[in-house]
Design a protein that fits this description.
Elements (H helix, E strand, L loop, with lengths): L6 E4 L9 H15 L5 H4 L7 H11 L8 H19 L11 H10 L3 E5 L5 H7 L8 E3 L12 H10 L6 E5 L2 H9 L3 E5 L10 E3 L7 H12 L1
Parallel strand pairs: 1-2, 1-4, 2-3, 4-5, 5-6
Helix pairs in contact: 1-4, 3-4
């Protein structure tokens, strides 16, 4: 059976809104406490992976991976989240990335289901502050999965909750780990950002402002024919 476009599943950070700066500032504050140098360049390596995985990478960066117990690492990750939650209190609908409102409108007009797949445990808070909660048919966050990206579980769970087979879905991501997860789920992948980092994507846009529903739909059916 030829796949039919029935659903689009969005990542949150870097696709719906840009919370990367807030994550960077929160990790930077924690890293400073730990005496570990932290740069925006290294922060790029944390995109799309879970909080605990990010913490482990930072500890390895500082040569402190064996300095803390599992419970202590959990407390460190919670402290980072406290910093982050304070920062996202300032988010408003004005922080929705360019082109996303229009793209969501086009999807609704064409009867395409919409899901959100974010490893952030604050996904519901951010979506609520953006006043977009009512736009998504399902929201799958870190609390509902066992494995983070690049494992496909979060995208497969979203498709399942949307009652759509993966082949009939498009996933949109800005992180390499996210694109890997989308492809592993058997979905068409749209990347937002650096072409060199998102080489696995089926279609890549430099920014959300360039997204066009008709173009994405055409590319989807072209790839499936």
């Amino acid at each position: 059976m030829v796949p039919q476009l029935k659903a689009v599943i969005f990542d949150l950070d870097g696709v719906i809104t840009d919370t990367a700066e807030y994550h960077y500032r929160a990790w930077e504050a924690l890293s400073k406490e730990l005496g570990i140098p932290f740069t925006k360049g290294f922060n790029e390596e944390l995109k799309g992976i879970s909080r605990m995985e990010s913490l482990e990478k930072i500890l390895v960066l500082g040569g402190k991976q064996n300095d803390f117990t599992t419970d202590e690492k959990t407390l460190l990750a919670d402290r980072k989240n406290d910093y982050y939650r304070r920062l996202i209190e300032t988010i408003t609908p004005q922080d929705i990335l360019p082109g996303i409102k229009e793209f969501i409108f086009d999807l609704k007009q064409n009867g395409i289901k919409m899901g959100l797949a974010s490893v952030s445990k604050n996904a519901f808070t951010v979506i609520s502050r953006l006043e977009l909660a009512g736009e998504f048919d399902v929201i799958v966050d870190a609390a509902l999965i066992q494995k983070g990206k690049p494992d496909p579980e979060i995208f497969l769970r979203a498709a399942e909750q949307l009652s759509v087979v993966p082949a009939d879905c498009i996933g949109i991501e800005d992180a390499e780990a996210g694109i890997t997860a989308i492809k592993a789920a058997g979905m068409f992948a749209v990347g937002i950002g650096n072409v060199e980092r998102l080489v696995q994507a089926d279609l890549i846009y430099h920014s959300t402002e360039e997204i066009q529903f008709d173009e994405i739909r055409a590319a989807f059916y072209s790839a499936k024919s």
